[in-house]
Amino acid sequence: MDVSHLIEGLNDAQREAVTAEPGPLLVLAGAGSGKTRVLTHRIAWSVQVLGASPLSVMAVTFTNKAANEMRGRIEGLLDRPVGGMWAGTFHGLSHRLLRAHWREAGLPQGFQILDAQDQLRIVKRVLRQLGLDEAYWPPKKVQWLINSYKESGRRPAQVPAGDDPQQRQFLRIYEEYEALCLRAGLVDFAELLLRAYELLARNEPLRAHYQHRFRHVLVDEFQDTNEIQYRWLKLFVAAHRQLFAVGDDDQSIYGWRGARVENILQFEQDFPGTRVIRLEQNYRSTANILNAANAVIAHNEGRLGKKLWTAGDQGAPVRSYTAFNEVDEARFVVDRIQEWVAEGHRRDQVAVLYRSNAQSRVFEETLVNEGVPYRVYGGLRFFERAEIKDALAYLRLIANRDDDASFERIVNMPPRGIGNRTLEALRARAAAGGSLWSVARDAAGAGLGGRAANALAGFCRLIETLAEEIRDLELAEQVDLVLGRSGLLDYYREQKGEKAEGRVENLEELVTAARQFRPDEAEALEPLHAFLVHAALEAGEGQAGEWEDCVQLMSLHAAKGLEFPLVFLTGLEEGLFPHQHALDEPGRLEEERRLCYVGMTRAMRELYLTWAETRRLHGREHYARPSRFLAEVPAELVQEIRPTGGAGPGTAPWASTPAPAAPPAGIRLGGRVRHAQFGDGVILNYEGRGEHARVQVNFEQAGSKWLVLAYADLQPI
DNA sequence: CGTGGGCGGATTTTT
DNA sequence: TCCGCCCACG
Length: 717
What we know:
The chain has about 725 residues and is of the alpha/beta class. Helices cover about 45% and strands about 15% of the residues. Strands 9, 10, 11, 12, 13, 14, 15 and 16 form an eight-stranded mixed beta sheet that branches. The relative contact order is 0.10.
């Protein structure tokens, strides 16, 4: 068989990776170095040259998008479908294992997946049940803690509590949360991973089976793996060590949610004899852009070390722009975009990147004013919308009556006279161990008031009838029938306003989604069940209209993995990017710098770096200093753009506003001061003048505070 | 049961 | 400043 197409056009390093001898392999793939290509060609090589069966291949990614793209490209290379290959996300593959071995994993057969929203509701319910104050136990924080423990592989029993009363109380919450989920047959995202891991770790025959089956394990974005994910991988390859890991330590930007770059460093120790291959040739950006990005990332310590280069053009210099304020910044960016379009380019080749989503607003306003179509990434995705989740909750309750989360969601949606009192009574009874459904079903006999009992009986009858009626229908008809009979659709139809109209449209769209849904045959689930899994595991796109030619607005995190001919990296100010939270905590700065590196390397041809001297944030005017990252770009690569004629101070509305107030006496940004109560700190910011002058000081002990200068009695030190 | 006002929180996010 | 959530009121 002719396999030359698998190595043709690859550079030496890529070819080396694709054709490497069996054994642990670590590919350090710089931005734009063709890592997906290497990954897919490696799989095709294994199949066509080494004679591996697709059944023996497991390829793991973080997002469904990446998994789908990978599968598509492999099928293109092999020119045939590879259904038996396991290509998917950590969560998707874990789910598949748990479905196949639900009994061994200790789960009910019809277990459902909880998304982050559902999980938060359950946490709140647990807190209420335990009589804990949400002010003292913020639900979000509890949720985060639970997930952190699960991501590090620890059940309540593995968390040492000691005498710490707070920790002991947390353990009660954690235990109760787990008990509630298990009773209701609910599995959160972290649980999917942990339980799949435990399943294999504890079940020798099962582990042997899968170790034997998957002799080719590949993982993408390895720098983003958290502890349990890496352990999960190691379990699969423990016997044969055939792990092909692709990652880039310089693009590790998810440390804050548990990703461990250290896993890359650990890799060579865990797998002695690992072959390390660096992909440093970049096929995306101009030399100027690469050199600028290289210079910035070089300021990080503890890198594995990589330097991107290109055989291509020098390209235009990187441009920087100092804006008066965020409005000026947006206007500058939109002006450039309009020039770009006037030159005959497409709008969707342009990305405006920012550190935090709040920054999008000003860009949006300016784009709207100028009539430039745009699309903002992020925000609620299709399957996360309230009305969609309502509809899915009906379907889930039909599939599994014990699903308390779904029960709570829809028992009074649309309103049917089952108020909080009734629900509280149900919860109290269910606390003994039954599901809400089981309690509700015999509520009348259990001493609930006549009206409430009636309403509950009606609800139960509705669910039973629906279950009966949809049994032999096609998936789309099932969804359609439930929408109609439940009263959901009518409820939203009767509501007024654009919002409600949109909801009705979304619900109708859900029927379409069900009609177009093609279940994965390998999962061997009933269509309805498979659809629910799909909804939980793939929340869908954020917004429609992707096909339209529009400017792309997104956070730096969301931009990872994408590329655009023209990129604006905005808001390069100390405190915003790098973000204040990262400056407050030691060790977080390097991740910010990697984020900057990721942003810069998105640009193919032109890169603009912008910052604003003044920015309105949370209703307050801030005087900013340029981000240190700006100074880290070598001056010879940068062309500074100055405000010109029409856009300059003469005509701009803000030119007439007073220049930033001079700092009050003795106050210097970055200067150290002492406060009688808070101790020593560093001045971060100031505003106002005279008796209203306030300064922001980051105290070593007390953290960051705003103080009125006239009262604070700060001593310079 | 739906709405409006008050309150607190405001990086980054996939599954 | 702005948004989402919670609670109280009608």
